[in-house]
Design brief:
It is built from 3 helices and 9 strands. The protein is an alpha+beta fold.
Length: 145
């Protein structure tokens, strides 16, 4: 794992502001990447890290996927702030979204947003780039409907 001073330097160089790390804590839920909440002088960031050689361009592909989801304006997605590499490790830097308690109609609203998301269609099935599904490369090609 990268040390704090190297991560501060990477973040400062790529986010355009001086970053001082106050605290790093692990976030549960992932099994492929290391997930971190990084608290800094400029706010909190969610950072995923993994092997740059074992999973080449994983986070570039994830960032592109998040951008596609964000473009629908249907569901809240984290903002991609940077995709970084330092020879051995890759990093995906996102804004940190705090958890909140569910509102009474949470699941109904969530279901409607997911349904709306799936109404976005194309003339062909597929995607214009390959990506990952977990740790496996997912080959995507357009196919006629």
């Amino acid at each position: 794992m990268i040390d704090n001073s190297t991560l501060e330097k990477l973040l400062t160089e790529n986010l355009g502001k001086t970053i001082i790390i106050n605290n790093i804590s692990h976030v549960s839920g992932g099994s492929i990447n290391t997930a971190l909440k990084v608290s800094t002088n400029t706010g909190n960031y969610f950072i995923k890290t993994n092997s740059a050689t074992r999973f080449p361009r994983m986070f570039e592909k994830e960032a592109k996927g998040l951008s596609i989801l964000q473009s629908t304006h249907e569901i809240q997605t984290p903002e991609v702030l940077a995709v970084l590499n330092n020879n051995k490790e890759s990093f995906l830097v996102l804004n940190y979204i705090n958890s909140t308690s569910s509102k009474e109609n949470f699941w109904r609203v969530f279901g409607q947003k997911m349904a709306n998301l799936h109404k976005h269609t194309n003339n062909e099935f597929g995607l214009d780039h390959d990506n990952y599904i977990g740790s496996l490369i997912q080959t995507n090609n357009y196919k006629s409907t």
